[in-house]
Design a protein that fits this description.
- By secondary structure, the chain is α+β, with helices and mostly antiparallel strands.
- The protein has two domains: 9-98, no CATH class; 110-159.
- The chain is built from five helices and five strands.
- The protein has a five-stranded antiparallel β-sheet, with no helix packed on it.
- The chain is elongated.
- It starts with 8 loop residues before the first helix and ends with a strand.
Length: 162
């Protein structure tokens, strides 16, 4: 069993999904049946025999080159697996980027800054107006309110309309 670490967040999600699957299977079985039939062995078999949606292969086929159920020898086409994975990554990136808007701020524009997440009742969601002094290409702007100038992320500002 691989330990979960903060250095590999992708492994965290995979292992948490495996743990959740094991817990769901154990919860659906009767305790007496678990003792008699060896639920953990069947759970591990099910996890190893499950076809991964990205690779379209089972874990044991990728690791050992053999199918668990049919006991046949197969070789995975790693080039095809990499292409399929990259295609899914690109589709996900395009889906996320469709929601993004391009910054249209210019120096001298007025913007409102989003308040903290924990605002009390009857408080404004945004404060300002702030005057933009510089627009950067990394998704931030420099804005001034009175004599204070700070850098703000585009996610936290909105155009000021009178």
């Amino acid at each position: 069993m691989k330990h979960i670490t903060t250095g590999n967040p992708q492994a965290n999600a995979i292992l948490e999904l495996v743990y959740q699957t094991i817990a769901n299977i154990i919860q659906t079985m009767n305790i007496l049946q678990m003792i008699l039939d060896g639920i953990l062995a069947s759970t591990m078999f099910e996890l190893c025999a499950t076809v991964h949606t990205t690779t379209q292969f089972t874990q044991t086929l990728l690791v050992f080159g053999r199918d668990v159920i049919l006991n046949t020898r197969l070789e995975a086409n790693w080039h095809l697996i990499k292409e399929r994975k990259q295609k899914l990554i690109n589709c996900g990136n395009q889906r996320e980027n469709r929601k993004r808007r391009e910054p249209t701020y210019k120096v001298g524009d007025k913007v409102l800054l989003k308040n903290e997440w924990k605002t009390k009742f009857n408080q404004d969601s945004f404060k300002g107006p702030y005057v933009i002094t510089a627009v950067r290409n990394n998704g931030t702007v420099r804005a001034t309110c009175s004599r204070v100038t700070n850098t703000y992320n585009l996610c936290n500002i909105r155009p000021y309309r009178k």
